[in-house]
Automatic annotation (TrEMBL):
Residues 231-447 form the Metalloprotease TldD/E C-terminal domain. Gene3D superfamilies: PmbA/TldD superfamily. Residues 26-90 form the Metalloprotease TldD/E N-terminal domain. Residues 119-224 form the Metalloprotease TldD/E central domain. This is TldD/PmbA family protein. It comes from Sphingoaurantiacus capsulatus. InterPro entries: Metalloprtase-TldD/E_C (IPR045569), Metalloprtase-TldD/E_cen_dom (IPR045570), Metalloprtase-TldD/E_N (IPR002510), PmbA (IPR047657), TldD/PmbA_N (IPR035068), TldD/PmbA_sf (IPR036059).
Length: 448
């Protein structure tokens, strides 16, 4: 895997060759990564894997025509051949008046902020195995656990670098650490499973194996002997580990591609209230050690915190340069890209701000409701916002969590769900998308 400086030098060579061949504009991205993962089950090593790879993606423009190619051979001659192939393809490609590099006057300049994304400590395969075994042992030690699907531990590193013919050069290195456990409780047809996991940039920020294992075991045992729930309209409360999916639906509706194609249930809602008063949703790509933190976006534009929803009002679309041109707007610094194809748009570290009520207070006045801990399937119409998903969780009975509930469908419309959403005060920053416990009144719950 190349260093950032070495990767940028390789990208510059490719862009120089593109210029010599007559390309009007070009950009290139390098992604190198290496990771080790260990899987154990019932205290024994089940699998160990090591993956390493590096690749360069090139995008060349001939007027308004463009083409993209990628190469895992990073030798100078191989990159020259890739450039030549892309140039030939670009000359035959259809015209696209919206395609192009990011505006040169908006590119990130100067030193990139230090986001502390790379842990200097290395983790051996033997240490990963020990962590996975410890997590599984802790899960299996919970009374009621009868079997295990295993535990896994992983550690990895990556380098990302981007260069454009308009003068942008930037790169950064990251590390990742993960640990998970999944176990089974009960016997025969009454068996239930659940899991716990955590990911972090730094090993020192990761939950301990004992914590992850115990959480997996306790969640599994709590799901034993589920009952049915009566069909009707009632308050539904989303546990933070599934409530984040609601923000995923929001993001899918405000990305430039969905808006420009007219396939968003939020068309025409920019600048309007789509959540209740007091709701704030923020995207922060500059969070130190954040799982999706980055000093610049996929087109070389600077990144910064964005209030996507401010006091309930939708303030922005998430736009790469192409979708911004199509909509007659400016790119927002949310471009994301891989090795192949043009950039799209998406969030970084996203969260819905905490409310003022505790979780217990959020539940207190619910005579009968449904607390969701698992969602099944997709179940969203992106054009209308109609929502229907399978779910499992717990009955809410007179303000308290009751018995486990399974085989449930919850339905509504996301636009109404957003307006009727109330957050608790228990927000924790643990994932790329974080929410507190969320309550939504008036959803249809279909059970027995």
């Amino acid at each position: 895997m190349l260093t950032v400086d070495a990767a940028l030098a390789r990208l510059s060579q490719a862009l120089d060759h593109a210029k010599r061949l007559g390309a009007d504009a070009a950009d290139a991205i390098y992604v190198g990564d290496a990771s080790t993962s260990v899987q154990v089950r019932l205290g024994e090593l089940e699998d160990i894997g090591r993956s390493e790879g590096e690749e360069i993606g090139l995008r060349l423009f001939s007027g308004t025509r463009s083409a993209s190619v990628s190469s895992s051979d990073l030798s100078p001659r191989a990159l020259e051949t890739a450039v030549e192939r892309a140039m030939a393809m670009a000359r035959e490609a259809p015209e696209d008046s919206y395609a192009g590099l990011a505006p040169e006057d908006r590119l990130s300049r100067g030193a990139a902020p230090d986001l502390d994304l790379s842990d200097p400590a290395d983790v051996s395969a033997e240490a990963l195995k020990a962590r996975a075994i410890e997590a599984e042992d802790a899960a299996r030690a919970v009374k009621g656990i009868t079997n295990s699907e295993g535990a896994s531990a992983s550690a990895g590193r990556a380098t990302i670098a981007i260069a454009t013919s308009t003068g942008f050069r930037g790169g950064y290195a990251t590390s990742s650490n993960g640990l998970s456990a999944s176990v089974i409780g009960g016997e025969g047809a009454g068996m239930q499973r659940d899991y716990a996991y955590h990911s972090a940039r730094y090993l020192s920020d990761l939950d301990t194996p004992a914590e992850i294992g115990a959480r997996a075991g306790e969640r599994t045992v709590a799901r034993l002997n589920p009952r049915k729930i009566d069909t009707g309209q009632m308050p539904v409360v989303f546990d933070p580990r599934v409530g984040s999916s609601l923000l995923g639906h929001l993001i899918g509706a405000i990305t430039g591609s969905a808006v420009s194609r007219g396939t968003s249930f939020l068309l025409g809602k920019l600048g309007e209230k789509i959540f209740a008063d007091g709701i704030h949703i923020l995207d922060d790509p500059l969070r130190r050690r954040g799982l999706r933190s980055k000093p610049f976006d996929g087109e070389g534009l600077p990144t910064g915190p964005t209030a996507i929803v401010d006091d309930g009002v939708l303030t922005t679309w998430l736009l790469d340069s192409a979708s911004a041109r199509q909509l007659g707007l400016a790119p927002t610094g949310h471009a994301s890209r891989g090795i192949s194809g043009p950039p799209g748009a998406g969030p970084s570290n996203l969260h819905l701000a905490a409310g003022t009520l505790s979780r217990d207070a959020l539940l207190a006045d619910i005579r009968q409701g449904f607390y969701v801990t698992e969602l099944i399937g997709q179940g969203l119409n992106p054009v209308t916002g109609d929502y229907s998903r399978g779910a499992a969780g717990f009955l809410i009975d007179n303000g308290q969590l009751g018995p486990a509930v399974a085989e449930v469908t919850i339905a509504g419309n996301v636009k109404d769900m957003f307006l009727n959403l109330t957050p608790a005060d228990d927000l924790r920053f643990r994932h790329a998308i974080d929410v507190p416990t969320l309550r939504i009144d008036g959803l249809t719950v279909a059970g027995a």
